[in-house]
Amino acid sequence: MSLLVQSLILGILLGGLYALLAAGLTLYFGVMRVVMIAHSAFLILAAYLAWAFTRATGLDPLLSLVGTVPLFFLTGVLMQRLLISRLRPATLTMMSVLLTFAIALVIEGMLGFVWTGTQRRIQLPYGGANLEFAGVNIAVVKLIAFGLAAVSLLALYLLLTRTKMGQALRATIQHPEAARLVGINTDRVAGYGFGLGLATAAIGGTALALDSTIYPSLHWHWIGPLMAIIVVGGLGSIPGAAMAAMVLGLGQALLQIPLGTTWAQTCFYLALFVTLMVRPQGFFGGRLAQRF
Amino acid sequence: MLSVSNGLKLVGLVALAALLLSFPSLAPNPFLLSVGVVIMSYAVLATAWNFVGGFTGYISLGHAAYSGLGGYATGLLIVKADVNPWLALLAGSLLVGLIAVPVGIASLRVRGASFVIVSISLVLILLLVFQSWGSFTGGSNGLRIPRPFGEDVLRPEQHERFFLLHVALLAVMLLAWWLIDRSHFGIGLKAIREDEDKAQALGVPTVTYKLVAFVLSAFFTAAGGGLYALWFGFLDPVFQFSILVGSYMVLMSLLGGIRSLLGPLLGAVIVGYAVEYFKAAYGDSQFHLVAMGLLLGVVVLFMPDGIIPALTSLVKRFRPEASSIREVTQAELVEQRRAGQAGGPPADRAAHPVAPVSEGGHR
């Protein structure tokens, strides 16, 4: 019983991180119709930056967020303005996949080049600490990672619903032409969308670095599940992505008990396949997702 | 009746075939010959990829799934069921084509984005499955496949035979591509590539057409993977189901030109040679990832149509212009008008119908 509860809690904690990262991934798709393969490569890059920061200064890796979040936001805006917007609109979806794939390869290669392919891990004073709670053991670092993800997701939600920029972003996602008609500079907004997406990768990467071993090719293990999540949730739908992430994160954690870690990962791909067969626009997707 | 340009094309094709067929005897040493086999294998895979990528414009980053499955299907049929190697190659490829049907149905009903996501996911899931399912696939230890030719056939001789087999497979695929390119089916596929909504509105059965092209592509890719497996004799999931192999196919086709028959072959020769050179000069360092990424980025940003269209447009610039505007001097025009007025009904207008539209529209 306690094993089940433990898995349930671990699933929720993992689902939170998935939700934040999938929200970023679906945001790019919403504003630009771009499948951003490099999202998880930036995630690992942020994890490496947090690790390098801690190794160089001895401070807590969470402090690296002060630098990485603005840096990644700026990188996202520049990437959209200088690279993605240069592609022809007619073939944007396909060519942007290749372009972001190329960026992912460059990041992976540079990580291996600068810090070698050795597996890295941050040594934290509270790294081994556990919270015991009604017979359930939860690692403190996992709680911190979840808290970070939850706070960021809440901030993203407030940003999208309460601010002028958020409204402009949502308008661009819903109908770019109409947004342009009411005076929204959709090009600039798309740049901000990319910046926000990469900022989620910066936060997620730091959270990941707290309790995982990292290596350059790790991003391939993240991009598959994340892409499956945004399709299940409906491409371009942020609430859908968050909800699908929670459900699939829980599913993965629960399946780990009978199947083991490797086979449990297949639940994402199974969900992807079933969704496309039964409801190709995803479970929360609107008009937008039907056409992609 | 052969026009000059068709004659030139024929001569070029014969020269290309002669060059490919004589390569084994020209290659100075067995190592270069083995590099030649690898490059031909890339050419086969890239051309197979181009059946879906070139005709429909749907970019699959996960075609390594089908080459890997083809290799494993062939290998497992030989090792576990003791099937004749060539029969196993054919049966394995057909099996993979069958597997591609549900995958295609799932990913092709909606537009591009889901297709890309499914294509990458498939490679990742297959890597996971083939690594974990050690009892059947050999897992991370790999799968050893016995050679189809007897022990008395030496290595250089093996390379030579497999080089020619790859050329034969490539020739079959090029012929199929050429035939489809000229068929009603091919026109429908190209309409989907240019504008899927309009194609659908005009009555092209888009989903069926895409599915057929996709399954055909998976079948040929599997055949290429199986042939490679027979030659190499050893399969490791990490190299078979590698995203990188899938992206090589894309880069090769894109660099050569996805709309041209021989584009993938040209791209495979360039990229394949570069990859082999990099491996020999720098080993398997992380640096080749950076080089590959940069090259792909440059091609996508600056040369999305590939080398062959870029060269053809350069050649066309020096040819007499095939303009759609009929050039008539003012004196001729006056003469025509006068004749028209004198002769009652303007017969000359019927004699000079709307100027033929040149075959422009190459985007």
Description of the molecule:
The complex is a heterodimer of chains A (292) and B (363). Chain A has 292 residues and is mainly alpha-helical. Chain A has a single domain (2-290), classed as ABC transporter involved in vitamin B12 uptake, BtuC, CATH 1.10.3470. Helices cover 74% and strands 3% of the residues of chain A. Chain A has helices at residues 2-32, 39-57, 65-82, 92-115, 140-162, 164-174, 176-181, 186-211, 219-233, 238-259, 261-264, 266-278, 287-290; strands spanning 130-133, 136-139. In chain A, strands 1-2 form a two-stranded antiparallel sheet. The longest helix of chain A has 31 residues, at 2-32. Chain B has a single domain, classed as ABC transporter involved in vitamin B12 uptake, BtuC (Orthogonal Bundle), CATH 1.10.3470. Chain B contains 17 helices and two strands. Chain B starts with a helix and ends in a 12-residue tail after the last helix. Chains A and B meet through helix 4, helix 9 and helix 12 of A and helix 4, helix 5, helix 12 and helix 14 of B.
How are the strands of the biggest sheet of chain A laid out side by side?
A: 1-2
Average pLDDT of chain B works out at 84
Task: Determine the CATH topology of chain A.
Answer: ABC transporter involved in vitamin B12 uptake, BtuC
The count of strands of chain B amounts to 2
Helix content class of chain A: over 70%
Number of strands of chain A: 2
Strand order of the largest sheet of chain B: 1-2
Counting DSSP H or I runs of 4 or more residues, the number of helices of chain B is 17
Q: How do the strands and helices of this protein lay out in sequence?
A:
The complex is a heterodimer of chains A (292) and B (363).
Chain A: H1 2-32, H2 39-57, H3 65-82, H4 92-115, E1 130-133, E2 136-139, H5 140-162, H6 164-174, H7 176-181, H8 186-211, H9 219-233, H10 238-259, H11 261-264, H12 266-278, H13 287-290
Antiparallel strand pairs in A: 1-2
Chain B: H1 4-26, H2 30-56, H3 64-81, H4 85-108, H5 112-132, H6 134-137, E1 143-144, H7 155-181, H8 184-194, H9 196-201, H10 206-232, E2 234-235, H11 237-240, H12 243-256, H13 263-282, H14 287-302, H15 307-317, H16 330-342, H17 347-351
Antiparallel strand pairs in B: 1-2
Helix pairs in contact in B: 1-7, 2-7, 2-10, 2-12, 2-13, 3-4, 3-10, 4-5, 4-10, 7-10, 8-10, 12-13, 12-14
